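Issue: copy button drops trailing tokens. Both records pasted manually instead:
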Amino acid sequence: MGVFWCGEWEAPTNSLVATTVAYDRLANLITLDTPQIPPMTETTIGEMFGRLFRALGFSSDKYEISPALMQKVLVGWFPRDKVGQSLQLLAEAGNCYVSVNKEDKFVVMPNIKTGFSTKSYTDKNAVFSINSPQRFLELHTAVKVVYRLPYLKDPNEELIRVDNIRIPKNETIVLDRIDFKSEDVPIMEVGWVHIFGEYNLPEIWEVSVGDSTGGTFLLGDGGGEFIQWTDPIAYNLMPEPPGRQTQSFTGDGSTAVFQVANYPLKQDTVDVWIDHVEQTNGTDYTINYATGEITFIVPPEDGSEIVVRYFYVADNVKDFLEAVYGEGSITTVTKRGSVYTITFHPSVGNSSLTSNFDELVGVFESEPYLDIVQEYVSPMNSKVVLISYGATDITLTIQNNGDVDETINIRVKGVGTGYHESHRIAKDEELAAQFGHKEYTQENPLVQTWELAKDYSEKILDFVSDPMSFVEVDFRGDPLLSVGDIITVSDETNEIKGIQIVPRMITTTYEGRLRATMDARRTK
């Protein structure tokens, strides 16, 4: 039956019977706090389950995730809540269930089962009765699945501001899991991290990645204006925005004009550094956004390193939309000036994206980052030495190596994720004509593509439109039977033969003999 842990025993002195309530590992797990996990991009439901189990400290031999859970998630994130809420979010988005098997291993499997039954029970050996109730109150004639297509928000939004932080001399303090202002909007993975104070330090920071997911990183004893996070495991956007470019040049002391490879450039997205010192547009250089030319007021010195980071206006919007909605879903995409016109194939239906398309284009023309600014109120011996962030919060470790107490202000800016909301409805017209329109709505922030919403609406409708799909079985019970198994039951005395079902809940009792009731659904 698996491995269980027990609560308090009830063992009356005047009775031969003792009782206890036993819980499997899942019951214990769901009460824990969800770890601080950064968002995941271009991932799947199965990969998100694996990431959560690993963050909870389980090795891969302690869980089993069905390879069928390949539903695409453009931006995946975990709520700052209990593990139970995170598992529920994933289970709904993946149309799957989570259980613990007899080997004490967490198992994640699809709800919709096909295949051969593993066990068979009949009225000759185990079944007392089989009932197939007609649950018309649970019948629905239409299913609406709401999905949310993510885009990047305004990069200038201030996420956190904490003033007058006192760091005692020669001590380290931790600002633990400070909530971002908008807790329901995840912050994207960091591609660049800016850390600076009200001072100039000439050397670039040394970076060592402390977590292979890219969510935690350590800062060395150097200082600098910016950090380029070059570790190969760093996450990309959804997908990698084709407009983002970083180019390096070498100064020769006389050349003032440098040409970037791609243009036209997007307004106000160009950053320029010379030998790791950020330059100011209009003071140190000028930009021709149409031609992609960067002109320095004073030619950079011979041997100097010039880094230009920019976004150019990308026009492959059609490819991105078809990656979300499916091949052939977009008929045409045209652009006149800054206005895009999109014609969707009739199979897609109406979409709210057309009225907000300027925000969608931001997926190509923005980049996620965190901007952590230290403002010194007193001497400047304190520095941020460790940063760890999740979807909705950040933890900062600040160290004061000086001989006096210091006070600083911290503010954090970054790129959050917004969502365009739309939906897909599947409807049984014949059933609606007979019973009227009764709609079931499924909404989950991890359902983020039209194709997935279409697939789910049709599969869910297949179940909720059939009042005869429920089966109740009263039988002798089997400790080796698990929720999710495919089994066959028969009651030939009452002419019920060979019904293939999947248990949803099994209630087992032992009062001198084992007996169980099972709530199940027919397989499709």
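Record 2 (pasted manually too):
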Amino acid sequence: MSTSQRKATSESTPTAEGPTPADAALRVLLLEDVDTDAELVKRELRREELDFTARRAADRDGFVEALRAFDPDIILADYSLPSFDGLTALRLAQEHCPDVPVVFVSGAIGEERAIETLRQGATDYVLKDRLSRLGPAVRRALREAEERRARERAEAALRRAHDELEQKVKARTAALRESQERLTAIIDAAIDAIISIDADLEVTLFNAAAEKIFRCEADDALGASIEPLLTPAFRALIQQYIDTHAEAEGAASGTNGRYVAAPEGLSARRTDGTTFPVEATLCPVPLGDGVQYLIILRDIDELKQAEEELTQLKSEQDYLREELKSEYNFEEIVGRSPAIQTVFDAIDQVAGTETTVLVAGETGTGKELVARALHNRSQRSDSVLVKVNCAALSSDLIESELFGHEKGAFTGATQQREGRFELADGGTLFLDEIGELPLDTQAKLLRALQEQEFERVGGSRTIHVDTRIIAATNRDLEQDVEQGTFRSDLYYRLNIFPIQLPPLRERKEDIPLLANHFCEKFSGRMGKEVTGVSPNAMAVLARYDWPGNVRELANIVERAVILTDDRLVRAEHLAITNGHGPADASFATLEEAQRQHIIQALEQTGGVVGGAEGAAALLDVNRTTLLSRMDRLGIDPGAHRS
């Protein structure tokens, strides 16, 4: 071939509608040393009505120069070239244009070599005697490249969100530290107000702390009545004390009386008319020919506010830390199957509304990830997402967890506590495993959902909130309604917009994507260079039934990444054999033995977990402990109900 034939060429090809500006056309870099083959490729692109600008390279130097100067959108490369082979061209393309898809168009590539090009990073390959496949292959490669770039942009956005959330945690932590220091300063350096009055309530002593507390200069207070600084209850208390002391002194000369502590809830009044809570003591002080009455008073308003602020900051800090650990895991909802695409469509439809959503699905299908996706895509995304696992709370504590309690409401309630509804005010409340709620709590939850109001346990004040509800369950709530274990009115209130998550066995086409995703995730965490899953291992994963769904797949891939010393996860690294059961065991592992033991108990009790006749009683373990272990082992009690 002559030098002029090998020289890189460039052309602009119009569409059927007429010419298109070069900057709007698809930029195609064509690596081909045969003129006729290059023309056939371009003719096929024109036949597919693709608007493109093509630049051709025929050797290594021309290819490298085109990679640097042409900025291609896609590379169509012959595999067999006189000066270098297709894999070398692929590595050069990945080095200079890592985001540009490469499609091999060759007549000298066998199946084994084609698979190797795909494993090394090529997007597709098309045989020259089947150029009718070129147009679909180009469109598919461009689409996948755009999806990859979109995913990278989403990951970058998530990293920014992670950083912002971390800054929020730091800011809240600093605010918490400042509040603690202020509270310490108040306690350590507090100086009580000391006021002395006579029997006519005239002020004779007014110290600097009293000036600060009452916002009144001592010169203005001295010689004036103290009554403007007292609430009616406080004034009555002082007058009664003076009268009682005068009577006792008249009955027995020389009796000085004793001090008295003011009852809790007493208030005083500042000069601007505002009232504030106080702690106070009164005592008589004999002075020569008369008696003065000493009032030692402490303003506890700031102390109460600081305590409440500290409690609130601690609560917010806990939830911000929980959010930071979760890292907005929306990117882990991976899949392209029609079943999971239906879920994505449902999320897009309802996320921006205020509608209550019920997420249903087997254990391990990713219900919490859907809840986080709904929250993150809503107008409440800047507020907190509060999670409640209804199955992990005992029946006597869940009401307090949801609605909070007042001090003294029950044994152990030593202080007032906000419930999860209050903590989620302005944000989203995620009620996981809602089917485990007791019936009496269901009634109170229904009112909170409908009216957005409730009372704390032991309290009478109605609290109003603005909270969106997302619920999740692995139970058949409709069946529970028929059996009388779940309220029908609550079910219909929750089931406004249901999202049903498919089990992994019903979307097995997503297993390769999920397996590679988890492989990349865990190898990055462990600092290992594991690039993917071998075909044999992928076949084993495809045959398995996945009772534990995506969570089980993640656990198996994580273990495999730990075990492999290779760049690939292979079949022997998986904790399953032949796609059907546990590996590497002449007898069951402890975990599998526990799983089978629990399943036998559930089958014997008809899937009932709690109660005197339930599986927890049969196994002699706490109900919440059993539920937690079942969740970890991927056991769904609903599957064993008779």
